[in-house]
Structure formats: structure tokens, C-alpha cells
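Moderator note: this is an archived Q&A kept for reference. The question asked for a predicted structure of one protein chain; the sequence and the answer are reproduced below.
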Amino acid sequence: MRLLIIGCGSIGTTLAKAVDEMPEIDRIYITDKSKVCAGHLVEKLHKVIYVDNSDESLSRIVGEIDLVVEAASQEAAKHFVPFFLDKGVDLMMMSVGSLADDDFRKRCFDLARSRGCRLLVPSGAVTGTDGLHSASAGAIDEVLLITTKGPKSLRTIPFLKERGIDVDRLEEPTVVFEGSAREAVSIFPRNMNVAATLSLLGVGFEKTRIRIVCDPKGERNTHRIIVRGPFGEMSSTTNNVPFPKNPSTSYLAALSAVAAIRRIIDNVWIGI
């Protein structure tokens, strides 16, 4: 199996290191807007080959790759996801928040269907997605996500600055946002991909409610999901360890991509 990983940030780097050790993976192409960043991985790993991120360069290797993993940003996803789906290549998407754009989502879903390829979204930094998926086969009355983060992952958000919220001056856990998932993924594009995943699995971007709490003493990213419906009620809480250099991203998100690739390789899907 041959992969292309787009982005060599925290998730892309973790993924590249993991798949480099998988005997089923023959070759790993990696691209990033920073050639220097990608170069570090090429030097350290055995199967990694750098490719320029231009459309022309990437088009040349389309016939050589079995799966593309987008692990860059919402902006990158909006270009590269339809680019590869249109060429009939399976693609795993980490910047799932970009799918809050209805037109973009429809375009990607239509391309996957018409070109006969798969658009894959791992569970990311949350647990409980399997239960939500099951509940969605019936009716769901409510989906609420309560996310708690420390100041490090929220201090650069323009929305908070515009409202005079200085996360470094908070003395107790404070609700800094409450609204729809669509609003959340737009305002917090690097923090709330989990909101998009839950929306796609459950009741959509408008009906999925999001509450974001900043805990001045918080060292982890915590996600609590509450789902209610005729089936009953379920809740799950995940206390994530964030990447030291990227506190907005949780280590579990990267592991979910690694686990998904392992399932694809083994062709055994348990808990779907």
C-alpha cells in the first residue's frame, strides 16, 4: 500500500512515523507548504519521499497512491480533498471542519459517489462516535458537546479577543462560546473538528450544540458528549493529552488516523 500525507504538522508527523513501521506500507509520499518541515521527516524515516505540493507534481503520482491523508488545515482541505476525489483516489480527511460548508460538503460527497472512491473521516479526538452513529439510524432529540480547554489553545482566537475575553486573565472555568456546531467550526477552525464529526454523524451542523469552556488550570483537552433520543441517553467524556507544540490538537486525533489505516490494511472493521 502507498500513501500520500498532506501536512507534516503534529498529526501528519505522528502518522508518518507510525505507518513507516508498518510492513504493509511500501511507500509514503509527503507534501507540505514548508519543504524544510517535510525534509526533516524524509531524513528520519525509511519509506518517506517528498513531493512538491503543486497540482502538477501531485498529479504525476496519482497512479502510484492508494490513499491520501489530508492532515493540514481547512484551507488545504478545500483544495486537495476535491482534487484527489475527482481523480478517484480514496482520501482520509482530518480537517473535517471544512465540511460545515454545505456546498463544499455536497461537492465532496458527490465526487466520492460518482468517481467510486471513499471519503474517510476518523473519529478524531473524541469517544462515543460509534454510539452516536448507531442512534442516528433512528431519531435523535439532542446532541451537546461540552469542550474544555486551557488558555494555550485559545489565546490566539480573534473571536475571543473581539469580545474582550483574555483567556490568560481568567481565574476560574468560564464559558467562552455557546452556539451551533457550524458557528464553532468557523470561529475555532483548528480546535473544533470534533464538532464537525459529531454533526455529520448525528443531527447536523445547526442542531448540534457546542459549549466551549476555558479552564485557566486546564492541562488537557476535554470533550463531553451528551446524546438524547427515543433510544435513551448516552454520554462519553474524553480527557485528551494535547501535543506540546500544538495545544489545540490532541494526540488521540493522530492515533485515530493510525488506527483507521490499520483497519483499512487488515480489511476487518469491528464496531462499525
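Archived answer notes: The longest strand covers residues 221-229.
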